[in-house]
Write a structure and sequence with these properties.
Blueprint: E1 2-5, E2 11-17, E3 21-24, H1 29-40, E4 45-48, H2 59-72, E5 80-86, H3 93-102, E6 105-110, H4 130-139, E7 143-145, H5 159-174, E8 180-182, H6 188-196, E9 201-205, H7 207-211, H8 235-245, E10 252-254, H9 263-266, H10 281-291, H11 298-310, E11 318-327, E12 332-334, E13 337-339, E14 347-352
Parallel strand pairs: 3-4, 4-5, 5-6, 6-7, 7-8, 8-9, 9-10
Antiparallel strand pairs: 1-2, 2-11, 11-14, 12-13
Helix pairs in contact: 3-4, 6-8
Bound molecules: N-carbamoyl-L-aspartate and zinc ion (2 copies).
One zinc ion is lined by residues 23, 25, 49, 257, 259.
Length: 353
């Protein structure tokens, strides 16, 4: 990373190796066309989540979805979608071998049934997937995990921590050679678990979980645009996540979990879970890293550790941010509705040029 110094200690600009987003929801159709340029402006590649309706459960469906993404990319922009398959109780070991052979499927995603947006087709009991997980371990196909129990008797703020004991630890014991990414971690418990695990375990961290604690959801009223899953946690957890992200530990890397939902679906009696962060993702991360006094740790977190973990080359290009006030727009157009970006209306210190 190269930085340009100002008289003060803070640099006036930072140039990073071009980053990647290791957890992204792009949706489909008009929604895909609306959000894709926001991501492609900053990121060279992204791990594209498969929770469409119906979900992307096969290599053939992933190939079609990949073509639709590439077709939606504006002329002159370059972006490589890294595809994933949605794990179900019925995913076969043969499907895993097909996915591996494709060269464009880079992970399989575990959604515990009922845990989050579009997870109804998810796994009801992980032991049903043992033969499939065995095949993944054998061919070297990573498993991305939405690590929350769907058990309604467990408090919503405890669902991630409970998942570690009930599912993550047993899974790692049964498949010690399987690469696993604990997605969008939100607790000190998860950060600690990943830090202490062996090198086949890593985690992604979102901008909202670095910048906000759960008070953000209830500031002067209910704030649906801060509602995502796993839900924001208390301040001690946010601090643990900032410490993990800025530690220089290669197990923690960037994954926005940018999850667009139309304004009408967010501002509703039963609002959807998901924060739209893709519009200004790198700016949000830079803000969090600057607050922690760790801007020098942004480049490895954003541009190196994820590629290394997935066994892909680091990008060649670069991305420059300047330190100038940038007001996040109140909304952007989205599929005959609007999208309200994370931190709408607030001023960030950094702006991508
Ligand atoms: N994070 C979210 O709150 N929502 C995601 C699903 C997910 O990543 O769990 C979505 O697809 O909307
Ligand atoms: Zn998730
Ligand atoms: Zn997600």
């Amino acid at each position: 990373m190269t930085t340009t110094a100002t008289p003060a200690a803070t640099p006036s600009s930072i140039t990073l190796r071009r980053p990647d987003d290791w957890h992204l929801h792009l949706r489909d159709g008009a929604a895909l066309a609306a959000v894709l340029p926001h991501t492609a402006r900053q990121f060279a590649r992204a791990i594209v989540m498969p929770n469409l309706k119906p979900p992307v459960t096969t290599t053939a469906l992933a190939a079609d979805y990949r073509e639709r993404i590439l077709a939606a990319l504006p002329a002159g922009m370059s972006f490589e979608p890294l595809m994933t398959l949605y794990l179900t109780d019925n995913t076969t070991p043969d499907e895993i071998r097909r996915a591996k052979a494709s060269g464009f499927v880079h992970a399989v995603k575990l959604y515990p049934a009922g845990a989050t947006t579009n997870s109804d087709a998810g796994v009801t009991d992980l032991v049903r997937c043992d033969a499939t997980l065995e095949a993944m371990q054998e061919v070297g196909m990573p498993l991305c995990v939405h690590g929350e129990v769907a058990d309604p008797s467990v408090d919503v703020f405890d669902r991630e921590a409970v998942f570690i004991d009930r599912h993550f630890i047993p899974l790692r014991q049964r498949f010690p050679g399987l690469k696993v990414i604990f997605e969008h971690i939100t607790t000190r418990d998860a950060a600690q678990y990943v830090a202490e695990a062996d090198d086949l375990v890593a985690a992604t961290i979102t901008p909202q979980h670095l910048l906000y604690n759960r008070n953000a959801i209830f500031t002067g009223g209910v704030r649906p645009h801060w509602y995502c899953l796993p839900i924001l946690k208390r301040e001690t957890h946010r601090q643990a996540l900032v410490a993990a992200a800025t530690s220089g530990n290669r197990k923690f890397f960037l994954g926005t979990d940018s999850a667009p939902h139309a304004r009408g679906a967010k501002e509703a009696a039963c609002g959807c879970a998901g924060c739209y962060s893709a519009l200004h993702a790198v700016e949000l991360y830079a803000t969090a890293f600057e607050q922690a006094g760790a801007l020098d740790k942004l480049e490895p977190f954003a541009s190196e550790f994820g590629a290394d973990f997935y066994g892909l080359p680091r990008n060649e290009g670069s991305l420059t941010l300047v330190r100038e006030p940038f007001e996040v727009p109140a909304s952007v157009a989205y599929d005959r509705d609007q999208l309200v970006p994370l931190a709408a209306g607030t001023v960030l210190n950094w702006h991508v040029v």
